[in-house]
Design brief:
- The chain has 24 helices and twelve strands.
- By secondary structure, the protein is mostly helical.
- The strands form six sheets. A two-stranded antiparallel sheet has the order 1-2. Strands 3-10 form a two-stranded antiparallel sheet. Strands 4-5 form a two-stranded antiparallel sheet.
- β1 (26-29) and β2 form a beta hairpin.
- It starts with 7 loop residues before the first helix and ends in a 12-residue tail after the last helix.
Length: 669
């Protein structure tokens, strides 16, 4: 199902000819569309009737990539281009790993070459703005709805350009004619600040006529919450160190200026009020949650839910009932069922914006064991494993006497909780870890149910990754079909999912484009970075925002409690709390395409990506496997650490076509 695409019962209203034409639009230049329609159907015909305009609108929306496709043929660098993923796969489609290995260039971006695609979408939306009044059967409500959706779609295209390529060329409502002169195409890019203000203004205007909620069959279409959620994310990025003056902004962009007027592309002056604006944007969605629209996804505790760990004293509210504490819910199921397809997708209250993702379903195969018809290569670095806490919230480096962390020995009994089975004879490294670890990570000795398969040997299997195990490097049929770190991402895999054997099937999945958990953590981060009190507007009224620890705790602790972990004490200083937020986002949003952008906006990209990828000793037998090593592959050492990786390069053909189009810093012209 394509992004924002109308449901089949609506598409059925559109003549087959129109659907075929809309799917074959091509582009000659990034600002213009050539051969938009065949001789059988002209734009005049499209804009003669409301139903055709709607089809044209959703045809534009269908041009967005599947957000859940973050591994093969990815539209954005994603997990493999930062420190949360690594793979041995190196076909043309695994563009994220190519990016971090320095193989993406302005002349070849592989699947990341989306600059022109986004401008095709923008042009289609601009065509709607220009010609919508030609439809004589257009009702007033239809007009408002079509324009609101077109404005949202256009803003979302600009957003994608901004976060991946940097400041876009902003066209407003203008349509560049395909037979125009070079001068009519030649434009300068906006500054980062100009782009942020334009996109947020467009989303605000779109939200005015977007609904709060949608019928179940329209899950994935824009809502008021989706528009507000994008604004909240953009405002947080805009307030962050890379784009808000200070050392990071100077280091990355201090000399980057627009040639047409010498303006700084990225502001070099710190503005603390941006944090207040970001807080206000997040608070608006939290207020919608207080009104019953959004909340964290939770599953009530039952007889299989383990008791909360004993002896937690750091948070006096920890043992209270949810949402004031962690009691009364099942943390493992509350987290895992949101991703693996168990929860009813269209009614999940945590989705500020999400959509069904066929590509996400397909990409679960990269994690499945090779001997069970998987591809066995979606590796997760040891750094991510170590970031997951113990069950009582202690870091592994500071574990408690009740739940000590050790890298020696093995478990001596099977433990079953919340429908999850932790085998006996599993390394003690993986015992007594927080629920999100078990929901997200496949490790050596993990149990894979795969219960949809009815073939012997294809379900209820224990999977190992040491060298001479069936799915280890020494046994697989291809030298790259093994998890190079000894871990795979298991977050989106349902217990019934299988790829091998008779009757194998996979549950449908949705990709959470924006989750309520992100809004809560963004609100906490924005407040934490305020040294003074600043006014910002919410829904037309001004409110003051400051580093209010009660508000920070209320937002941050909800995410922790849902994970079964204690929250903040309230005594954390600004630096400590920022570190905790960064750690929390690393675990909470694993493989959700947030980490790549987070380490950039925080200005720590070079620091974290210069750390070697580590994992278990997949070159060794079981007796030496459970030792931290830098995997034996030249690709680890070949990872590039360079400021130019803050943005993708603009395609070289676009740079050479438009004299005023400045390339991103560090990339060739």
């Amino acid at each position: 199902m394509k992004l924002l695409n109308k449901n089949s019962y609506r598409i059925a209203l559109i003549p087959l000819l129109l659907a075929m034409v809309l799917s074959t639009i091509s582009c000659k230049k990034f600002l213009s569309v050539d051969n938009y329609f065949s001789d059988e159907l002209k734009l005049d015909t499209v804009f003669a009737e409301t139903r055709y305009i709607k089809a044209y609108l959703w045809g534009a929306a269908a041009m967005f990539p599947d957000e859940g496709g973050l591994q093969y043929n990815s539209h954005t660098p994603g997990p493999y281009a930062t420190d949360e993923g690594f793979t041995s796969f190196l076909s043309n489609g695994y563009s994220g790993i190519r990016f971090i290995l320095g193989e993406i260039t302005p002349s070849n971006l592989y699947s990341l070459n989306r600059w022109g695609d986004y401008y095709k979408i923008i042009r289609k939306c601009n065509t709607i703005f220009t010609r919508i009044d030609e439809a004589k059967d257009m009702k007033t409500q239809d007009r408002f709805t079509i324009l609101a959706n077109a404005r949202f779609i256009r803003a979302y295209a600009y957003y994608n350009i901004l976060v991946d390529f940097g400041p876009p060329i902003i066209l407003g409502d203008e349509i560049i004619e395909s037979n125009g002169t070079l001068q009519s195409y030649n434009r300068s890019r906006s500054t980062y600040d100009e782009a942020v203000e334009y996109i947020c203004k467009e989303l605000e205007e779109a939200a005015t006529f977007l609904p709060n909620t949608l019928p179940l069959v329209e899950f994935g279409l824009p809502t008021k919450g989706a528009a507000y959620g994008l604004i909240a994310r953009i405002r947080l990025i805009h307030a962050s160190p890379l784009f808000n003056g200070g050392d990071a902004a100077r280091s990355y962009f201090g000399t980057w200026r627009r040639t047409s007027d010498n303006a700084q592309y990225v502001s070099q002056t710190y503005d603390e009020k941006r944090w207040a604006v970001a807080a206000a944007a997040a608070k608006r969605i939290i207020d919608m949650g207080d009104g019953g629209i959004f909340r964290l996804h939770t599953v009530p505790a039952d007889s299989e839910t383990p008791a909360l760990p004993a002896g937690v004293t750091s948070d006096p509210n920890y043992y209270q009932e949810w949402p004031n504490g962690a009691n009364g819910i099942d943390p493992y199921r509350s987290y895992s069922e949101m991703f693996n397809g168990e929860a009813v997708i269209p009614v999940n209250p945590e989705y500020v914006w999400g959509r069904r993702s066929p590509q996400l379903v397909s990409e679960t195969r990269t994690s499945f064991p090779q001997k069970l018809d998987g591809w066995n290569g979606a590796g997760v670095p040891q750094k991510i494993i170590d970031n997951y806490t113990m069950i009582d919230g202690h870091d592994i480096a500071n574990s408690s006497t009740n739940y000590p962390y050790t890298e020696t020995g093995f478990t001596n009994s099977v433990k079953i909780f919340s429908g999850y089975r932790l085998n006996s004879n599993v390394s003690n490294m993986y015992a007594n870890r927080e629920p999100r670890f078990y929901a997200s990570i496949g490790f050596s000795g993990a149990y894979w149910p795969m219960t949809s398969s009815t073939s012997s040997g294809f379900f209820n299997q224990t999977i190992e990754y040491f060298f001479d195990s069936p799915n280890g490097k020494g046994s697989v049929s291809s030298p790259v079909d093994f998890p190079i770190t000894g871990y795979v991402v298991k977050k989106f895999i349902h217990p019934t999912d299988a790829w091998g054997g008779t009757n194998n099937r996979r549950m449908d999945k949705a990709f959470p484009i924006i989750r309520y958990a992100e809004i809560l953590l963004s609100y906490a981060e924005a407040l934490n970075n305020l040294d003074g009190s600043h006014a910002a507007e919410i829904n037309g009224s001004s409110q003051n925002f400051s580093r209010d620890m009660n508000q920070i705790k209320k937002a941050f602790n909800q995410v922790r409690y849902r994970a079964g972990l204690p929250g903040l004490s309230g005594n954390e200083d600004k630096a400590t709390l920022q570190r905790l937020i960064e750690k929390e986002r690393m675990s909470e949003f694993l493989f959700e395409n947030r980490r790549y952008y987070d380490v950039r906006r925080w200005g720590i990209m070079e620091q974290v990506e210069s750390e070697p990828i580590r994992g278990m000793n997949t070159e060794g037998s079981r007796d030496v496997y459970f030792n931290r090593v830098i995997p034996n592959t030249s690709r680890i050492g070949a990872r590039v650490v360079n400021k130019r990786l803050a943005f993708l390069p603009i395609p070289l053909n676009e740079i050479r076509l438009l004299p005023s189009l400045n390339q991103n810093p560090g990339w060739d012209n």
